C-alpha cells in the first residue's frame, strides 16, 4: 500500500475571508444582490509552504468560487443540512468521508479528483453558465 498523502484541508474562510478573496465586481447568477468572490488557492499556498495543487483539496459548496484555481483541486458537495436526518455528508461512514479516505491514499490530488468526481461538477466549458463565468474570471485573472 502506498503511504498516505498529506493533504492540506482547512477552513479556507480563515485565510481567505471576504477581504482577502478576489472580488470580481459582478454579482452571482443565483442572487443579484450577492457579490461574486473567488477564493484563490495561490494565496493559501503563500501561507503554507510545501503545499500545492497536487496535495491540496479545496472543499466549497459553490463551485464558481474555485474558478481561479487549477483544475481538479476542488470538490463541491451540496450543503450539509443538520435538520435533515438523512443527510450523511459528515457521517464518518458516509460517502464523503470514504471519498476523502481514498483521496488521502492517492499520490496526486488532481488526478484523483479528475478520475473520481464527487458532488457538484466544477464549472468548465460544459457548464450551462460557462460564458458568464469565463468572462468574469478572465476579467479578474
Automatic annotation (TrEMBL):
<protein>
    <submittedName>
        <fullName>Haloacid dehalogenase-like hydrolase family protein</fullName>
    </submittedName>
</protein>
<dbReference type="InterPro" id="IPR023214">
    <property type="entry name" value="HAD_sf"/>
</dbReference>
<feature type="domain" description="FCP1 homology">
    <location>
        <begin position="1"/>
        <end position="103"/>
    </location>
</feature>
<dbReference type="InterPro" id="IPR004274">
    <property type="entry name" value="FCP1_dom"/>
</dbReference>
<dbReference type="GO" id="GO:0016787">
    <property type="term" value="F:hydrolase activity"/>
</dbReference>
<dbReference type="InterPro" id="IPR036412">
    <property type="entry name" value="HAD-like_sf"/>
</dbReference>
<dbReference type="Pfam" id="PF03031">
    <property type="entry name" value="NIF"/>
</dbReference>
<keyword id="KW-0378">Hydrolase</keyword>
